[in-house]
Structures are given as structure tokens and as C-alpha cells.
């Protein structure tokens, strides 16, 4: 036993030494909105990085020094390639890495239950190439227990012992795409290990690239931390969306109310309503906890109510569009409707779970002739669940005047709101852009 402990400690010490002196090779699996910024940060501080992705087109573009994410420049990718970054679809190269960081999607299935297929398939693809002395970190948001219930037994099926031969941690991503105030380096990062030795390896993995790493007692605590962060937002957005409906029925502008409440210097944090929830985290993550809670005989009514309210927002907006058109003796059927902004939040090109797309589908199903305008999405992309053969419509006085209704769904800063106000026949504003009342603006 003493011999095994000594050997384990030697493996851990050797790994930590490599991570601390930056001679370790970092493998990042999943080169999207989480993996790509993380790659750039590791390269920036001097590590050699291998990036893995199943999308051959992404690999080709990165190898050519191109970027496919708006807020990440081609210059940054080219510099990373020049510094030794390699992108590949060949998972056998995982054996070259001292650290494997998994950054793949964790969506919901059609029954709104966790879909861990990306995480599990990725892990199983890596297991044949894992070796002693590596640290494996899962960054994908998931329910408490995933790391030790799902990843640990798959890794140990290779004969490697977690905590002795190989080290396993959970350290959830905290990215805010398009926000210049926070970067991968400056956002504190939580990290929990399966064992104490795993925790030491995880802290060393992130310690050189993140300003503050927050250790937690377990992977489950780290998994729950990420869920709490996103459920906190989902519940508060659900509250303000419900308040919006009540205020609208009473003839009160909810945005005026929020601005007034935000002047209170304590005890109030402003959240803002919209046409629904978007992004990969907030619309999805709460359901990971509600699903897992049922295993313990618990029904998370508060969380599920917020999800019900938020998921109903696109339908509510469509109702406002119908009423607004009806007041002008028109119906949705046959009307030409322009959706402004199809990214899930302003100033990004990220369309994951965008409520704008659901709005487009609902309006089209009711017979509307749909178009969209988004400076960050020039052509509607191929998506697993949504299909539109559309290009972004340029905003001009003539084009705006030609639509029966303009639905302001995503409030990008570079939209010309004065031009839109002047020439659009009808604007349904879901974001509170137009603070003052206007004859052609309906707030939703």
C-alpha cells in the first residue's frame, strides 16, 4: 500500500511540476464558445495546446488561422497557430496531452431531460488514449453526480485508478460571450476533485491561467455551484417576465419600473424581461437539476415555474404582435414581418437556444411572411432543429417601410434605432429600447 501511495504521489508531483513550469501539453476537446477562448488563454501564457473537435470544417478553419466566432479575431487564432496550437479530429493524439479539458455541449432531449451523449461519447472516445499521469477536467454544465457516476467508471474501465493513476475534476465554464469586462483570465473559476489528489491536480491545471481558482470539497459541489448560478438568473428573469405581463395588463411600463427600482442602493438587483431565454446555459441548466432532484423524491416547483414562465414568452410576444396588427386591421397571416436580431443576446453571433428563432417559427406557422436582419448572422445557419433558407435583410428606409411589422427581438447596439423608428410602420419592442411612447411602437 505504501508503495502504491508513493507511486501515486510521484505521478501527481510530476504532473503538477509540468503544469506549474508550463511544459505540460494541454488538450481541449470541443472548440466552441468555451473551448476556443480557453485555448487562447493557455497558448497566451506559454503552454502547447492540442485542440480536438469532431467538426472537420472547424479544424480546417482554425488550421488556416480563421475564426468562426465573432468576438474572437482571426489574428488571435493565427497567433495561436504560430505559437504551436494544433487543431485535429484525431482523438488518438489525446495520449500526447498531460491535461484533457472537456468542453462539449450538454443539451436537453425532446422530453426536456439531460442529454449527456456528447459528454459520454467524448469520454469513451478518449478513454483508449488516456494514460497515467494525466488530469481530466469536465467543464460542461451538468447535474450533480455526473463526474463521479458517469466519467469515473468509464475512465477506470481502462484499468487506471482515479486519484492514483489519473486525476479527475469538474470545473464549470464561466464564459459571457461578447462581454469586454470579463475574460477567461479574470473570471474566478471553481474546481472540485473526485479525491484530494485530483483537487490538487485541478488547481495546478488552472492556477497558471486563471487569476483566482476557488477550490470546492467535491465534484458534486462544483456541479451544483454552476447550476445555482444559472438557476438564480433563470428564476429572477422568470419573475421579471411575469411582472412584465402584469404591468402590461395594468398599462404600466415595466422598464420604467425597473429603472426606478434600480435606484435603490441595496436589496435590489435589476433583471430585464425579453422575448424568452437564450444561450446554452440559462434555458437548459435548471432542468438538469429538476431531473436529478426527482431521483431524491423532490419536486423543484419554484425552478420549474420560472422555466414555464420563461418558455412561454415567445407565445406571449406573438400574441402582442397579433393584437398590434389587429389594431391596424391586419392579421398575422399574410403579413410581412421582419425580426430584428436572431442571436440570443446583443452584440454576439451566438444563436444557441435563441428565442428569436422560436418567434420566427411561431409567426411563420400562423401564416406570416418572415424575414430577419442581424449584422452578426449574415445567413441563417444550419441548425439541428431549425430550418430557414434566409439571408439577413439590410436595413434601409425602403426595406423597413415594406414590412407590416418589425419585431425587435435582440437589441444589438449597431442597429440604427432612429432609422427603424422613423420608417417602420409598426414596431413590437421586446427589449424596452424605445423608452418614450411612440405611435408606431408597441412594447412586448
Question: In words, what does this structure look like?
Answer:
With 444 residues, the chain is α/β, with parallel strands linked by helices. It folds into two domains: 2-217, 3-Layer(aba) Sandwich (Rossmann fold); 235-443, Rossmann fold. The chain is 40% helix and 12% strand. It is built from 15 helices and 13 strands. An eight-stranded mixed beta sheet has the order 3-2-1-4-5-6-7-8, sandwiched between helices. The chain has a five-stranded parallel beta sheet with strand order 10-9-11-12-13, with helices on one face. The radius of gyration is 24 Å and the shape is globular. Mean pLDDT is 94; it is low at 1-7.
Shape: globular
What is the correct CATH architecture of the largest domain?
3-Layer(aba) Sandwich
- Biggest β-sheet strands, sense, barrel: 8 strands, mixed
Span between termini? 67 Å
CATH topology of the largest domain: Rossmann fold
Number of helices: 15
- The gyration radius over C-alpha positions equals 24 Å
How big a fraction of the residues is strand?
5-15%
Order of helices and strands: HEHEHHEEHEHEEHEHHHHHEHEHEHEE
Helix content class:
40-55%
Structural class: alpha/beta
CATH superfamily of the largest domain: NAD(P)-binding Rossmann-like Domain
Overall structural domain count: 2
Record the strand order, biggest sheet: 3-2-1-4-5-6-7-8
Average predicted local confidence, pLDDT: 94
Low-confidence stretches: 1-7
Give the beta-strand count: 13
Name of the top-level CATH class of the largest domain: Alpha Beta
